[in-house]
Amino acid sequence: MSQLLTSRQAEELHKAIIAYLSVSNLPSTAAALRQELNIGDSFDDNTRKKYEGLLEKKWTSVVRLQKKIMELESRNASLQNELDSTTPTSLLRRNQDPTSWLPRSPARHTLQSHRQPITCVAFHPIFSSLASGSEDTTIKIWDWELGELERTVKGHTKGVLDVDFGGPRGGTLLASCSSDLTIKLWDPSDDYKNIRTLPGHDHSVSAIRFIPSGAAGSPSSGNLLVSASRDKTLRIWDVTTGYCVKTVRGHSAWVRDVVPSFDGRWLLSAGDDQTARLWDASSGEPKCTFLGHEHVIECVALAPPVAYAHLASLAGLKKAPPPSSSAEFVATGSRDKTIKLWDGRGTLVKTLIGHDNWVRGLVFHPGGKYLLSAADDKTIRCWDLTQEGKCVKTIEDAHGHFVSCIRWAPSVIKDAGAVNGDANGAAVVNGAGKKEENGKGKESIRCVLATGSVDLNVRVFAS
């Protein structure tokens, strides 16, 4: 007798086997088994019908159950990992040290309303508003904390290619640019009314950024905006008058991206000519050209001063540049699938290899330790600058299609004397803000990241 089965269970099994053999046209085998087991006349037709099919049912249910068990074990392991990383101790540690926070799947919110691919996202510097622009010609304003659509802003006649918050009035204007050749300014405090349209570019306007006001004595006023275009130029605009105050020429093809330094002194741009260029924002003169990519450069980022120590070590420098210095290190992302880190003089520091498709967005972690990238391979990757740029985390399938843009929520400035912590109303650039100046205010990193995709979704990753 099997030790696993009781006598009753064994009897049930035997009858099921005999019924199976009978139905399978194996009468001699069934009779032999009945004789061996001393199951005589008690096994009649009614009994056979009762046990018909029982063996097959049990067999298939066991296979199904095994598969279900494997799925549940896998799910259990995944949940256990999540639980392990969110114990009270780790939560406390995470709250204490947002400089080490990295986004993880799943996203807190998936925001759906756009009807065409999303091209850009930008955070309001103060409120929990997130703007997204799309090829459907609209800008949508979301509450990223609640995950709700607040309004749809219409005005452009072709795809919106970039959006940014900044400028005067505490850095709370919204700027947008489009394939319709225009830049538009919207006032969030007046129901996102279109307060100005800036015409002047001869082709699609690919990127825009407000230029932050610099330190004392800097010529930047906080009223300036820079735009990059397919007409091969950068233009600097005064948003209070709507006038183009400078046209910067030097690129030989479509300029895809532009970002200003945190103090407004420098502009970094890149595009189809496979170069990135650093410009003096006040004169428009070129400072440096970054050569090395083998395809179009899609995106650029300037390292915040808090990252200088890690990047200086990576570059083999004995001493990091002072925090007051800007544009000391830059990052570029290209269709050649690589990210390159450079110093401010054009020397290549490191090439980061890992993406399987075009790199479309870059952002430095405001803690200074990481660089995050988004790409057409549907992933977000986190590169650790303290480990020679090693990829320490990959969010696979961050979106269902190409990830087109990535932005970090600007830091909150506490105990500040003025709105947004700057007497001149400076906006925080690319999610990496100013260092504390003269005790004016202390920055508190917001662990919030937004991405947009060709899959029509905006995703918010938050702690």
From TrEMBL:
One of its GO terms (biological process) is cell division. GO terms for molecular function: dynein complex binding; hydrolase activity. SMART domains: WD40 (SM00320). Its main location: cytoplasm. Keywords: Cell cycle, Cell division, Coiled coil, Cytoplasm, Cytoskeleton, Hydrolase, Microtubule, Mitosis, Repeat, Transport, WD repeat. Residues 80-99 have a biased composition (Polar residues). It is found in: Cytoplasm, Cytoskeleton; Cytoplasm, Cytoskeleton, Spindle pole. WD repeats lie at residues 111-152, 153-187, 198-247, 248-289, 324-343, 352-385. InterPro entries: Dynein_regulator_LIS1 (IPR017252), LIS1_N (IPR037190), LisH (IPR006594), PAC1-like_LisH-like_dom (IPR056795), WD40/YVTN_repeat-like_dom_sf (IPR015943), WD40_PAC1 (IPR020472), WD40_repeat_CS (IPR019775), WD40_repeat_dom_sf (IPR036322). Dimerization mediated by the LisH domain may be required to activate dynein. This is Nuclear distribution protein PAC1. It comes from Lepidopterella palustris CBS 459.81.
